[in-house]
Specification:
About 20% of the residues lie in helices and about 35% in strands. The longest helix has 14 residues.
Length: about 150
């Protein structure tokens, strides 16, 4: 059994930015030398998410509208009330209850099969990071396990 790890680091530009990392996953699978196994993709954040879906501009706009309906930025969130919140507060804390609520509908990780050294994604499938908050640095860890 072999194991290989890689971390992707990037800075997002805006809320609802969709960053397609499919090619990074495919390249990592090839470079790992692992012929058959699994690559786990894990996002190290709670105000962004991973999706496996079609990277088509009109559909991405539909996703944005759907996520905003699910957890509007215009709503009041207890998480944003710094007069009562006492847990996990940083000096540069931002008002982002909406982004955490959006993230609960999505994934923090996904897994892709590796067969004959190739990451297996369907014809229209892409793995994308979705920024649900503001521009900020993000990290995605990938780990392949296999033979």
């Amino acid at each position: 059994m072999k194991l290989s790890n890689k971390t992707l680091e990037f800075k997002t530009k805006s809320i609802f930015e969709f960053i397609d990392i499919s090619e990074d996953i495919k390249k990592f699978a090839k470079e790992s030398g692992i012929k058959n196994g699994l690559v786990n993709i894990f996002l190290l954040h709670t105000s962004a998410a991973l999706i496996v879906n079609e990277n088509e501009p009109l559909l991405l706009n539909d996703f944005k509208k759907s996520l905003e309906r699910a957890a509007s930025q215009k709503e009041d969130y207890s998480h944003d009330n710094m007069s009562i919140r006492t847990v996990n507060v940083c000096n540069d804390e931002c008002i982002n209850g909406h982004s955490h609520c959006k993230a609960m509908y999505l994934l923090a990780n996904t897994c892709v099969n590796i067969i004959n050294g190739e990451a297996q994604l369907g014809q229209w499938q892409s793995v994308m990071v979705v920024e649900l908050d503001r521009p900020r640095p993000r990290k995605v860890q990938m780990q392949i396990i296999g033979e």
